[in-house]
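#struct-help
A.M.: can someone run this one for me? Single chain, 152 residues.
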Amino acid sequence: MKNLSEAAVKNEVLQRIAKLQPGARACWGRMSAGQVICHLSDAFRLSLGEKSASPATSIFHRTVMKWGALYVPVQWPRGFRTRPEMEQGVGGTPPSEFERDKLALSALIERFSNPRSDIQWAVHPIFGRMSSSEWMRWGYLHSDHHLRQFGA
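D.P.: on it. Structure tokens below:
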């Protein structure tokens, strides 16, 4: 199963991000390409403890839903609502300059995929506590989901 701790997978994601253009049209959803870049950056910042989000978790979310999202080999469904602090136009970081935002996202992915040995992963607002391997799987799946949104 693909995850961002694998160099080839990380490079694939970084190449897909590099190809994304500011005028790219979404196949679904409301976000622009610039907003998706900022949304992904916010999500990686959250995992690294640099941004927070309100919890919306339950035993179902922390067990069944987390397992299904990370390990069932199907694409994530469209239209799943994010936390307000991550949502573009609400509490998410607004886009500034597209190429600079892309470079910032790539740098975050590099840091995320090569964590320090003493890293204290944040608690996911829906899935709860996650191990390093679960965060790496989530990082790939979340990135893949939004890059597919733009055909990247």
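A.M.: thanks! The mean pLDDT is 93.
D.P.: also worth noting: Helices lie at 7-19, 33-47, 59-71, 98-113, 132-149.
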